[in-house]
Amino acid sequence: MGNSQRFDTVLKNGRVVDPTNQIDGQFDVGIRLGKIATVVETIPPESADDIIDVSNQIVMPGHIDTHAHLSSPFQGSVDRAFGHAMLVESGTTTALDLAGDPTMMSEGMIKRGAGLNVASLMGLVPHQTVSEDDPRPSVLRDAISEVKKRGGFGVKMLGGYHPFTPEASADVVKEANEQLAWVAFHVGTKDSGSDMIGLREVPEITGKGRLHVAHINSYTRGMIDQPHEEVQEALGMIERMRSHWITEAYLAQINGTNGKCDENGDVIYNVMQNCLKARGYPTNEDGVRASLRDGYGSALVERGGRVIRVTGQEAVDIWESVATDASLSYPVNPPTSAFSLTTAKYDDGTFRVNAISTDGGSLPRNVAIERTMALVAFGALSMDEAVTKLSYTPSRMMGLLNKGHFFEGADADVTIVNPGTGKASMSLVAGELIMLNGRAIGRGGTWLVLEEGRQAAAAIGLPYEVIDLENSRLYENWN
Ligand SMILES: [Zn+2]
């Protein structure tokens, strides 16, 4: 390249880490028309319209979060669209909304978007988003094709909350696979739960089906065996299903759940029951109330455009004010499980769990980047490996061929991390700053849709990009 080249923006003097191109060192990144134009030792200042000094900062391809929450299939007590700004403020540039509803996500993006690229899944909920409790394959086929037309990537089963029968769960995977739609599974059926028993059931019922097994760490909380035994079993299962599953794990201790109780005062959802059982609370209204009052659990509430956690009597009041149908959170994820799952590799050096996610967005636990940097500081991951799990592998999972690396012509999605704090200090999407010093400054966003969703995206007027899941890891070597 010659010095005659002009750039819209140059990121100057950062430590650029791009393992795909074997780059780790001090370089300048030249951006033109929203794309990476060059990564070289020095770009003359006069050839740039805008220079951003990133000295002593880490410059990496933007974090792609393969498990976030930006919409809900329900009218929840907290608007999940607040998650756009929350994710952006933690340094994420692209997210898979898991799930959700694509129409609600896109409306939320118009209202509260902060510049993210977002693909959305629809949560499959009996009697709400699918007509039946135990839907026939044809009902599922129609529901999946309909959601693609509304701009969704596909569907997610919420087995820990709204389980189907094992047969219907298997049909969801089969029908999604047949039309190359995304299918994610928070495990659990009417015969199992959101734990190792639920995970063991998945290969039995879905066979060689392709699926995204959501937040693998959530099933290794020590509900059935000791956490370290469950982790080893999960890792063995992942190896056996290596050509059929994609997985992610998150690094936050707190989970996200719902405190809804039935007319007898009993906790409805399996995940919520497990949270209470883990500390010996009864799985009813008294147990929920005591767990919040004691400071074990917390309630989520919106303050100043962000979702935060509150506990004690304030949390009880929030939970009661919405007739128990409140978003709650419990510290049920053992850090040892998250650590082992995040760092485990095959003999060839590739990671067993594909990506590090947040399971955050509107849940206030968007710690993927800072906790990953803590693992780097600890020596458990190299910087290259951190970028691979935060950005490159997630880009392959979703078939986002233009992201996850700094090849010439790649999308100029960049996360800039302060190595001292481990937190993102700045980020760009398509060459535009969307976050600066921990504050979201972006607007709107780019909707990632499949070909079938092109019209829906065009009609709503958001910038959009059509993605082909044939390029995704989910459907690698699929025939
Ligand atoms: Zn989730």
Sequence stretches where pLDDT stays below 50 over 5 or more residues? none
Give the helix tally. 13
Mean pLDDT: 96
Report the count of strand segments: 24
Q: Total domains, how many? A: 2
Going by CATH, the homologous superfamily of the largest domain would be Metal-dependent hydrolases
| Bound ligands, each once | zinc ion
CATH domain topology of the largest domain: TIM Barrel
- Any guess at the CATH architecture of the largest domain? Alpha-Beta Barrel
Radius of gyration: 22 Å
Largest sheet: 11 strands, parallel
Question: CATH first level of the largest domain: which class?
Answer: Alpha Beta
- In helices, the fraction of residues equals 25-40%
Give the structural class.
alpha/beta
In angstroms, what separates the terminal alpha carbons? 41 Å
**Looking at the structure, what is the overall shape?**
globular
Bin the strand percentage.
25-35%
Overview of the structural elements:
This protein is α/β, with parallel strands linked by helices and 479 residues long. The chain folds into two domains: 60-253 and 333-397 and 437-479, TIM Barrel; 256-330, no CATH class. It has helices spanning 83-90, 102-112, 137-149, 166-178, 196-206, 227-240, 270-278, 285-293, 313-321, 335-343, 368-378, 383-398, 454-460, and strands at 7-18, 23-32, 35-40, 48-53, 58-61, 63-69, 92-100, 114-124, 154-158, 182-186, 211-213, 245-250, 257-258, 298-303, 306-310, 327-329, 355-357, 360-361, 414-417, 424-429, 432-436, 439-440, 444-449, 464-466. Strands 6, 7, 8, 9, 10, 11, 12, 17, 18, 23 and 24 form an eleven-stranded parallel β-sheet that branches. Strands 1, 2, 3, 4, 5, 19, 20, 21 and 22 form a nine-stranded mixed β-sheet that branches. Helix 3 (137-149) packs across helix 4 and helix 8 (285-293) packs antiparallel against helix 9. The chain is globular. The model has no long low-confidence stretch (mean pLDDT 96). The structure holds zinc ion. The site of zinc ion (ZN) has 4 residues, from strand 6.
